[in-house]
């Protein structure tokens, strides 16, 4: 399997530039003091669609052939990838068919339809999502763009760490959350190419810890059941991302829901940042393992900011 090279990632960055934000890297001396290390937050909560997913979706859509574009794109997602793909398709002027479980958050459905995506509802099981998607692809001829297990998506997500390291090249550690693994794999590739002495460490919710268990077992062990506030990280890690993670990720650290809520609250109170639970997981994992990070310079990707403000956990 050949993964995106550094020149592929740079080309993706140039390709998607007109369609995404270059998000800021922010710091907080108050949080540094609490954490006992120096933190640099890459704020993808300010990204288009409110999450890093805008990068991978834009890259995947822009790389389609004219014939593929004519028939549109399709995916199944209950969250940020759905909105990101709908937006990327609307910018490209092509149709997007989004299969969403009936229990997907209302805020996420609104986002998808707001970007012009056509929502196809299904039962809230992975099997129903996959079979409904197959029907949609068969009827429309649309190209399936998976949320993370797809090289063009990983290549797009890798541009986030590229920007972070352009601004802060002298980091000791870079952290990202892990669900399906697209962002983590892209981050790990970029860091490996630019400075392999930087460690890549992931944060994962203890209520959906398949990547943590898979790393230890050396094979993918999907989640049997999940229970976590971090709804963006419920998916089990994908095959392509896992191959990269095994090679280039130093460790996966777990965080409990109370720790995740505490990290969200810290970002909200000290930095006035609205970060969704999934985006706060790396900071929560760091706070739970402070001794490991003592005195280090740590870049943290805050992956998204799509919080239902009517249901804030604090």
Overview of this structure, please?
This protein is α/β, with parallel strands linked by helices. The chain has two domains: 6-51 and 150-311, Rossmann fold (3-Layer(aba) Sandwich), CATH 3.40.50; 54-144, 3-Layer(aba) Sandwich (Rossmann fold). 48% of the residues lie in helices and 15% in strands. The chain has 14 helices and ten strands. It has helices at residues 6-16, 29-35, 53-62, 66-71, 80-92, 106-114, 126-140, 151-167, 182-194, 210-217, 239-248, 257-271, 277-288, 290-293, and strands at 25-26, 38-43, 73-76, 96-101, 118-122, 143-144, 173-177, 199-205, 251-255, 297-302. It has a six-stranded mixed beta sheet with strand order 1-2-10-7-8-9, with helices on both faces. The chain has a four-stranded parallel beta sheet with strand order 5-4-3-6, with helices on both faces. α5 (80-92) links the parallel β3 (73-76) and β4. α1 (6-16) packs across α3, α1 (6-16) crosses α8 (151-167) and α3 crosses α8 (151-167). The protein is globular. The relative contact order is 0.17.
């Amino acid at each position: 399997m050949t993964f995106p090279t550094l020149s592929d990632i740079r080309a993706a960055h140039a390709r998607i530039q007109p369609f995404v934000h270059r998000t800021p890297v922010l710091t907080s001396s108050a949080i540094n003091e609490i954490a006992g290390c120096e933190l640099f937050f890459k704020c993808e909560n300010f990204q288009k669609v409110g999450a890093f997913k805008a990068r991978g979706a834009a890259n995947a859509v822009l790389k389609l052939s004219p014939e593929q574009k004519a028939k549109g794109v399709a995916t199944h997602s209950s969250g940020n990838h759905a909105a990101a793909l709908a937006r990327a398709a609307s910018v490209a002027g092509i149709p997007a068919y989004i299969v969403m479980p009936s229990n997907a958050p209302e805020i996420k459905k609104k986002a998808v339809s707001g970007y012009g995506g056509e929502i196809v509802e299904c039962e809230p099981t992975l099997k129903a999502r996959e079979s409904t998607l197959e029907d949609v692809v068969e009827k429309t001829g649309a190209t399936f763009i998976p949320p993370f297990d797809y090289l063009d998506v990983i290549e797009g997500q890798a541009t986030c760490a590229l920007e972070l390291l352009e601004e802060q090249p002298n980091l000791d550690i870079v952290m990202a959350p892990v669900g399906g693994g697209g962002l983590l794999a892209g981050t790990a590739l970029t860091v490996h190419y630019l400075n392999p002495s930087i460690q890549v460490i992931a944060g994962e919710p203890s209520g959906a810890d398949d990547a943590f268990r898979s790393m230890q077992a050396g094979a993918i062990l999907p989640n049997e059941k999940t229970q976590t506030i971090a709804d963006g990280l419920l998916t089990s890690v994908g095959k392509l991302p896992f191959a990269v993670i095994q090679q280039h990720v130093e460790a996966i650290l777990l965080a409990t829901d109370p720790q995740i809520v505490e990290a969200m609250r810290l970002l909200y109170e000290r930095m006035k940042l609205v970060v969704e639970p999934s985006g706060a997981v790396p900071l929560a994992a760091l706070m739970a393992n402070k001794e490991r990070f003592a005195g280090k310079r740590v870049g943290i990707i805050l992956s998204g900011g799509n919080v239902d403000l009517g249901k804030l956990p604090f």
